[in-house]
Amino acid sequence: MSYTRLIAGVLAGGLLAAACGTAESPGSGSSTGGGSALPLQLVADLDPADAGAVGSSVNQFGFDLLGQLAEDGENTVTSPVSAAALLAMVLAGAGGQTADEMAAVLHLDDSRDVRVGALLRELADTDDVTLSVANALWARDGYPFEENYLAFARDSFGATIDDADLGSQETADEIDAWVRDQTEDRIDGIAEDLGLPSGDAVLVLLNAVYFLGTWTTQFDPADTRDEPFLLADGSTADVPLMHSTDVSVPVVQRDGYQMARLPYGEDERYAMEILLPDHGADLPQLLASLDAAEWAAAVGALQERHVSELALPRFELEWKADLNESLRALGMESAFGGGDFTPMSPENPFLETVVQKTYIRVDEAGTEAAAVTGGMMAQSAGNSFRVDRPFAFTISDSRTGTILFLGTVTDPRG
Question: Any idea where the Serpin domain is (predicted)?
Answer without folding.
Answer: 63-412
